[in-house]
C-alpha cells in the first residue's frame, strides 16, 4: 500500500501532478470583454474602520455621528479609500492574480451621494486595451475600466481605469524597448517652496498666490510616517478579497526582487493620503488621476508623504467648501518615491 504522506513518495507525486492555476494570462483578455467579478463584498463598518485606522485616515465625519451630521451625512459613511480598495480587491482573482507590474490607474471617480456601510458591492470590468510590452517579451499590457456598483440599485459607486503588465503563456519577440532619448536630467525646481499656514481652503488659495508672486511652488512634506507591519501588508488586502500572491504568499515571494510579501498599492496610497488629510480640512473627495506605483513597499518599510498644491477654485458642491487639486507623492525611509497621483478634493472654508 502506498503511503502518500511518506516525504519521498509525496515529493514524487507533487512533481507529476498538474497545478490547477488561478487567474488569467494576457491571451485570455480581448478588447471589449466584460468580466463580472464574483463574489461581491458587503461594505461593513468593521472593514471600513479597520482600513481607516490602519492607514491613519482619522477624519471625524467617518467616525462620529455628530461630525457626520455636520457634513450632511445621515451617519458615518464608507471612506472613499476603502471603497476604492474593495472595488479593486474583488477584481484581482480575475484580472491580475497571475502577477505583473501595476502600471497605473486614472479617472478614479465617486458619486456625489455618500455610500453607507451595509451596501453590497458588485464589480465588473471591461477590457479597454491590450498591447505588447516592447521590453518584456514574457508580458503583455492590459487596461480595464472597472465599475463598482450598488448591487441593489445599480448605481456606480466607484469607477476607474487601471493598467497592468500580465504574464503571457508564451513569450513573443519584441524590439527590446526603444532606446530612450537623451534628456537633460538637471531638475528645474522652483526658487522657493511655500507651505500653507493652515488646512482650510483659504489657506491654500493664499499660499498659491504667494508662490506665484515669488516664482515658487506650494509644496511640503507631512511629518507622520507609518511603518508597514503584518496587518497592513497581509491582513488589509485579504479583507478586500485581494488574493494576489504578492501580498500573502511568502514562499513564492522569497525569490522575487522584494524577497518578501509586499504592501497592496492601495494601502500605500491610502496611508500617504491619510498623512496629507491630517494637514487639511477635507470636505469631500472628488477623484484621482495619473496614479502610478514606482517600487514595492514591504514589511518594515515606512511610508511618508509629500504634497504639491496645483490649483484652487471657489467652486464646490457646497458653499462651505472650495475645490483644490493636489499632487501627492508617497516615499519610503530612503526618500524613494513609491506612489504618485493627482487628487481633487473639496476643502472646508473657514466659518465666517
Polypeptide structure, described:
The protein has 352 residues and is an alpha+beta fold. The chain has a single domain (22-173, 190-348), classed as Hotdog Thioesterase (Thiol Ester Dehydrase, Chain A, Roll). Helix content is 23%, strand content 32%. The chain contains 8 helices and 11 strands. It has helices at residues 7-16, 45-54, 65-70, 80-95, 201-213, 230-239, 250-253, 265-277; strands at residues 34-42, 102-109, 120-132, 139-150, 156-167, 193-194, 217-227, 282-293, 302-313, 321-331, 337-348. The protein has an 11-stranded mixed β-sheet. A hairpin with a 5-residue loop joins strand 10 (321-331) and strand 11. Helix 2 runs antiparallel to helix 6 (230-239). The longest helix has 16 residues, at 80-95.
Mean pLDDT: 93
What is the number of domains?
1
Placed side by side, the strands forming the largest sheet appear as 1-3-4-5-2-8-11-10-9-7-6
**Major β-sheet annotation:** 11 strands, mixed
Layout of helices and strands:
Blueprint: H1 7-16, E1 34-42, H2 45-54, H3 65-70, H4 80-95, E2 102-109, E3 120-132, E4 139-150, E5 156-167, E6 193-194, H5 201-213, E7 217-227, H6 230-239, H7 250-253, H8 265-277, E8 282-293, E9 302-313, E10 321-331, E11 337-348
Parallel strand pairs: 6-7
Antiparallel strand pairs: 1-3, 2-5, 2-8, 3-4, 4-5, 7-9, 8-11, 9-10, 10-11
Helix pairs in contact: 2-6
Amino acid at each position: 500500500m502506498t503511503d502518500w504522506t511518506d516525504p519521498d513518495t509525496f515529493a514524487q507525486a507533487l512533481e507529476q501532478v498538474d497545478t490547477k492555476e488561478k487567474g488569467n494570462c494576457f491571451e485570455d483578455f480581448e478588447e471589449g470583454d466584460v468580466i463580472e467579478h464574483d463574489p461581491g463584498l458587503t461594505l461593513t463598518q468593521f472593514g471600513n474602520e479597520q482600513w481607516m485606522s490602519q492607514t491613519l485616515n482619522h477624519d471625524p465625519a467617518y467616525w462620529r455621528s455628530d461630525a457626520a451630521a455636520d457634513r450632511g451625512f445621515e451617519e458615518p459613511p464608507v471612506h472613499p479609500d476603502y471603497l476604492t480598495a474593495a472595488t479593486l480587491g474583488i477584481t484581482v482573482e480575475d484580472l491580475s492574480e497571475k502577477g505583473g507590474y501595476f502600471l497605473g490607474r486614472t479617472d478614479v471617480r465617486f458619486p456625489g451621494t455618500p455610500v453607507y456601510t451595509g451596501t453590497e458591492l458588485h464589480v465588473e470590468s471591461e477590457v479597454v486595451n491590450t498591447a505588447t510590452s516592447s521590453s518584456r517579451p514574457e508580458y503583455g499590457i492590459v487596461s480595464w475600466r472597472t465599475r463598482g456598483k450598488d448591487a441593489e440599485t445599480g448605481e456606480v459607486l466607484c469607477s476607474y481605469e487601471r493598467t497592468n503588465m500580465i504574464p503571457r503563456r508564451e513569450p513573443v519577440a519584441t524590439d527590446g524597448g526603444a532606446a530612450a532619448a537623451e534628456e537633460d536630467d538637471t531638475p528645474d525646481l522652483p526658487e522657493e517652496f511655500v507651505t500653507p499656514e493652515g488646512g482650510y481652503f483659504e489657506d491654500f488659495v493664499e499660499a498659491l498666490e504667494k508662490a506665484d508672486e515669488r516664482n515658487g511652488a506650494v509644496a511640503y512634506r507631512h511629518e507622520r510616517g507609518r511603518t508597514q507591519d503584518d496587518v497592513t501588508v497581509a491582513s488589509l488586502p485579504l479583507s478586500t478579497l485581494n488574493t494576489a500572491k504578492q501580498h500573502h504568499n511568502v514562499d513564492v515571494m522569497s525569490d522575487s526582487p522584494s524577497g518578501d510579501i509586499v504592501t497592496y498599492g492601495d494601502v500605500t496610497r491610502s496611508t500617504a493620503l491619510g498623512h496629507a488629510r491630517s494637514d487639511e480640512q477635507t470636505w469631500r473627495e472628488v477623484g484621482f488621476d495619473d496614479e502610478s506605483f514606482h517600487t514595492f513597499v514591504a514589511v518594515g518599510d515606512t511610508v511618508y508623504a509629500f504634497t504639491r498644491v496645483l490649483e484652487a477654485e471657489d467652486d464646490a458642491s457646497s458653499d462651505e467648501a472650495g475645490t483644490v487639486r493636489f499632487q501627492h507623492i508617497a516615499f519610503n525611509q530612503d526618500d524613494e518615491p513609491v506612489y504618485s497621483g493627482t487628487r481633487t478634493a473639496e476643502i472646508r472654508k473657514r466659518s465666517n
